[in-house]
Amino acid sequence: MSSTTELLKGAAELFPGEVVTSALVRHLDLPGAGRFALITLDNGLDHTKPTTFGPQSLANLDAAVDQVAQEAADGVIAGVGITGKPFIFAVGADLKGVELLKEHKDALAIGQGGHDVFKRLRSLAVPTFAYYNGAAMGGGVEVGLHCTYRTVSASVPAFSLPEVFLGLVPGWGGCTLLPNLIGADRAVTVVIENSLNQNRQLKGPQVYELGIADALFEAADFLEQSLAWTAAVLKGEIEVARPEVDRGAAWDQAVARGRSIADGKVHGAAPAAYRALDIIAAARNGDLEQGFAAEDLALADLIMGGELRSGLYAFNLVQRRAKRPAGAPDKTLARPVTKVGVVGAGLMASQLALLFARRLEVPVVLTDIDQERIDKGVGYVHGEIDKLLVKGRVAQDKANRLKALVTGHLDKATAFGDADFVIEAVFEELGVKQQVFAELEAVVRPDAILATNTSSLSVSEMAAKLDHPERVVGFHFFNPVAVLPLLEIVRGESTDDPSLATAFAVAKQLKKTAVLVKDAPAFVVNRILTRFMGEIQNVIDEGTPVAVAERAVEPLGLPMSPLVLLELVGPAIGLHVSQTLHGAFPDRFTVSPNLAAVVKAGKRGFYVYDSGTPELDPEVAALLQQGDTVLTEDQVRTRVLDAVAQEIGLMLADGVVAEPQDIDLCLITGAGWPFHLGGITPYLDREGVSERVNGKAFLAPGVASVPA
User: Fold this and answer.
1) β-sheet bridge partners, residue 136
2) Which strands sit side by side in the sheet containing 449-452, from one edge to the other?
C-alpha cells in the first residue's frame, strides 16, 4: 500500500459523510494523434450538487491516475485529459469534512494527500490536459494547474481560488504553481485581491486572458473543440507559447501589493492572506516541492486555527441557515403578491420600488405628497433600469417591461386599492408612520399586508391604533438595498402567521437573507452597531484622541473604521438611532454631545479627504468638547468588546432572535462584518470576552472552533 493510499484511507475514516466523486476513465481516438484517455469527475448528482474532493474522491482520482500512468508507460496512450460533469468541473475540497478534524497531523494529511495525487498528473509520461468545462474553485482549479495544458469554456460562470476568503490558503498547488504560470502580480489578484473582495469570481474569458488557460472555446461544443485542439497540440501543429515570467523586482512589488491589500482588508487580524503571500514570495525560485511543503504546513496550521473555523461557520450561515430562516411560519400560509405599493418616493423608497419590480415583476406604484416627488422617484427607477440596459444586464424588451411596471400616483386609494403588499419608507418618526398606516388601512383590501421599513421604531406601536394590526409586519432593508442582502423581518405583538409567511415569501422572491426578529428597539444590526459606536463615541467624549479610538478596533479587521461607517450611515441617522435606544435603555445607550454638535453644524462626517486619506476635519476638531480621561488602544478595545458582548447577551436572553447564529448572520449580511470573524460571537468567544462578561460562551465548543 502506497503512502498516498494510507494517507487517504486514514483521512476517509474521519469523513464518514463524504459525497464521493468518481473519476471515470474512457478512451478516445484523436485523429492523427493516437489513443487518448479522458478522466471525468462526477459525483452522480446534478449541477446543484457540485463535485468536491474528499479523501475517498481523491483516492478514486488516484486510482484513475494509476490506470492511465500504466497506459502511458506502456505507450498505448498519447495523452490524458481531465474534465467535469455538465456545468461543473470541480469546486475544491469537501469542507464539511474539514470541520470535523481535531488533530494537526490529520489536517496535514489532507494537504499531503491532495498534493500526492495531483502531482502525479505532472509526472506522467505523456502530456496532460485540463478542460475547465464549468465552475471551478479551489482544488478544482488546482488539479488543472498540475496539467501540462488547459482549456476553458467561455460560459464558465465562476472560477476562483477562494481559500483566503474562508481562512485557508490554496493548499494543493495554487500558491506555488499559479505565480510560476502567470506571474506573481496576476497570481496575487486571483489568490488575494479577488478572495478578499467578497470572493470575486472570474468568468471563462478572464481565465483565458490571465493566461491560466491556453485556449478558450464556446460552450456548445466545448469538449469537441478542446479535443480537436489537443490533437493539434499532440501532433505539433499548435505550439503553446507562454510569456516569460518576470522573477525580478516585479515579483517583490506584486507581493508588496498583496500585503497592502491584505492590510487594507483585514488589518493583520487574519493570518491566511499573509501565509499565502509568504508562499508566493518563496515561489519565485521555482522550487515546486519546497512550495508544496509550505502549502501543506500552512494548510494544516490554518485548519487547526480559529479563523478557518469561523470562516466555515460564516459560510454555513450564509449558504444554509439563510435558506431556512429560524422561526418562519409554514410557507403554505403565504398569500400571493401581484401588486406592490410603496409609500414615499425618496431615495430609499425608489430603491425598494426598483428591487420589487426587478425581482417580483409585478406592478409597483409609488405615492408621495406631491407630483414632483413622485416623478423624481419614478424617474430614478427608470434611469437605473436604463443603466442596466447599457451594461447588458437586461435586454431592451425586459427593460421596457420593467419600466412599464413602475408608476406613481398622488391618490393612495387609486394607487393601492388593489395592492397585495404595501410598504412605507417615509420619515423615521412614529407619529408620521402611524398616520400613514391609518390612511392606508382606509383604502387597501382587508387582506393586504402593510409593511414598514423602520430601522428602529416599534412595529407594534405603529400598528396599535389600526383595526387590523395583525397584518402589519416590519420589513427592514439595509442601504444600499441592491448590495446588502439582509432583511430583518419583524413580528409585531399582533402580527399573524399568514402575514409573516407572506413577508418571508416576498423576501425569498427578492433574493434577500431574511431573519425573524422580535419587535425590540432597533432590532439587531442597528442595536449592536449603535452600542459599538456608542462606546467609541463615549471614549472620545471622555478624552481619548479620535485616532486612538479608531485604531483600537483595527484588530477586528472590519471593512471600515467606526467613524467612516458613521459617515456612510449619516451622522443625523446615527444620532437619531442613539436617541431612540437611549430612550429604551438609558443605562447602556448614551447620546454623544459631540455627535449632536457635529449634526447641528451640518457636517457629513468627522473626516475630510483632501489628501486622499481620511484626516480629522479641523472644523469638527474645533467642535469637540473632550474630558481628560485618555485610554490606550487596548483599553478602548476591551471596553467596546465588553459592551457588545453584554448587549448580545441581553438580546438573546430577551429572545430578539432565536440563536447567536442569527446575530452573526445579520452582521455578516447587513453590516459587512468579516467572514473571518464568523460574524461577532465566535470572535468574542475566542478572545474570552463572552466568558468575562456573561459567564459563558455564546456558541458550543466545535460550532465555530476546533472540536474538543
Assistant:
1) 90, 159
2) 406-408, 364-367, 340-343, 421-424, 449-452, 472-477, 486-491, 513-518
Q: Calculate the dihedral angle through the C-alpha atoms of 161, 165, 166, 170, rounding to the nearest 10 degrees.
A: 30
How much is the pLDDT for 14? Answer: 65
Contact yes or no for 184/280 (Cβ under 8 A): yes
Model pLDDT, residue 265: 85
CB 664, CB 681: distance < 8 Å: yes
In DSSP terms, 152 is beta-bridged to 132, 216
Encode pLDDT of 569-578 as tens digits: 889 989 999 9
Give the mean pLDDT of 480-494.
93
Contact 163, 144 (CB under 8 A): no
Distance (Å) of CA 118 to CA 82, 146, 374, 453, 565 = 11, 6, 61, 52, 45
Which residue reads 481523491 in cell numbers?
58
Instruction: Write out the E strands in 154-245.
Output: 159-160, 215-217
pLDDT > 60? residue 1: no
CB 57 within 8 A of CB 18: yes
Grid coordinates of 466? 389600526
- Strand 34-42 and strand 22-30: pairing? antiparallel
- Rounded Cα–Cα distance for residues 293 and 112 (Å): 8
Question: Is 0.90 surpassed by the pTM of this model?
Answer: no
C-alpha cell of residue 185: 502580480
